[in-house]
Amino acid sequence: MDRFQTINPEQAYQHWLNKTAVMVDIRDPQSFRAGHTTGAFHLTNETLNNLLQEADFDQPVMVMCYHGHSSQGAAQYLVNMGFETVYSVNGGFDVWQRSYPEAVNTL
User: Fold this and answer.
1) Which has the closest alpha carbon to 85: 17, 18, 22?
2) Cβ-based neighbours of 102, under 8 Å, separated by 6 or more
3) Number of structural domains, the chain?
4) For residue 49, what is the DSSP state?
5) What is the CATH number of the domain that holds 63?
6) Do 63 and 22 contact (CB within 8 A), yes or no?
7) Tens-digit pLDDT profile for the chain (107 aa)?
8) What predicted TM-score, i.e. pTM, was given to this entire model?
9) 70 is in which domain, residue-wise?
10) Residue numbers annotated as active site
């Protein structure tokens, strides 16, 4: 694949439930600490090398931001880094938190 795909929250939730994709959250540290998808990897400039070293490049990756816009650039970056299947989650964490509160870790 040479381009990311978009995925709606319902599809992302099914991947999350079935553990068939890795959730990556690119929001700022304060927002991530306040609440994030259970099991999400917090992707920052500081953690990018960890992701690249630990990742299975064949496993699908779902990228989440606040509303589904910034995640598109990050998703394309991950495609360019060699990930086979990368999704940007439409609506981002805003929709995810409202739709699936049971799938959110909060402080």
Assistant:
1) 22
2) none
3) 1
4) H
5) 3.40.250.10
6) no
7) 689 999 999 999 999 999 999 999 999 999 999 999 999 999 999 999 999 999 999 999 999 999 999 999 999 999 999 999 999 999 999 999 999 999 999 86
8) 0.95
9) 3-104
10) 65
